[in-house]
Amino acid sequence: MSGHVHSAEGHGHSHGLVDDSIKRSREGLRAVSLSLAVLGLAAGLQLFIYLLSGSVALLADLIHNFGDALTAVPLGVAFVMRSERAEQLAGLAVVFAIFVSACVAGVEAVQRLVHQNAPDHLWALAAAGAIGFIGNWLAAQIRSRAGRRLDSPALIADGAHARADAYVSLGVIASAAVVALGAPVADPLIGLAITLVILRITWQSWRTVRGHQH
């Protein structure tokens, strides 16, 4: 009898880093894919409503939600590669995507301030804000729980980002309410406010990702 006992399945020593790595990769990829599906659905519904309403506040939220959904791509690649360095780079890609979405939303809001055009279909606009809130909140729960379970700074940062986005989406509901009260200029102003919030999220996410790099 050999003193180096293997299990009946013949892989007693293959458990550990390899199997844990594969399990972590699969769980991370599952969380990323599920959050991508949730945010993609929310953004698709918001796009349809934006085409009806023309709201800048909604456009700012919509652009950001699409960008947020796309951050799942580098995160998913990182989990497939099972590389800590790849996860760190994916975290930086998340931060860059947030920053770009803020710039695009800000430019559109300024242009709408100069060339004012009040949104319509206000009930649909409010519904779009609610959709954004629900989609981001669900994505935040999925990412944050998986990030804590897998000890992934990139997922944790993205979860915090999605949670903040949920509250940003409430700005779209506020825009619909204020425009309904007779102040259409509030729509691009709320769009600018959302842009500033996104920039703050960019900075916080940057600090989170950089703080976990070694």
Give an overview in words.
The chain is mainly alpha-helical. The chain has one domain (17-211): Alpha-lytic protease prodomain-like, CATH 1.20.1510. 82% of the residues lie in helices and 0% in strands. It has helices at 17-53, 56-70, 72-81, 84-114, 122-150, 153-180, 186-211. α1 (17-53) packs antiparallel against α2 (56-70). Mean pLDDT is 76; it is low at 1-18.
- Topology as a string of helices (H) and strands (E): HHHHHHH
**Beta strand count:** 0
Question: How many whole angstroms does the radius of gyration measure?
Answer: 21 Å
The biggest beta sheet is recorded as: none
Kindly report the CATH topology.
Answer: Alpha-lytic protease prodomain-like
Q: What is the number of independent domains?
A: 1
Shape: elongated
Mean pLDDT: 76
Give the percentage of residues in beta strands: under 5%
CATH class: Mainly Alpha
What proportion of the residues is helical, as a percent range? Answer: over 70%
CATH architecture: Up-down Bundle
What's the total helix number?
7
Segments where pLDDT lies below 50 for 5+ residues?
Answer: 1-18
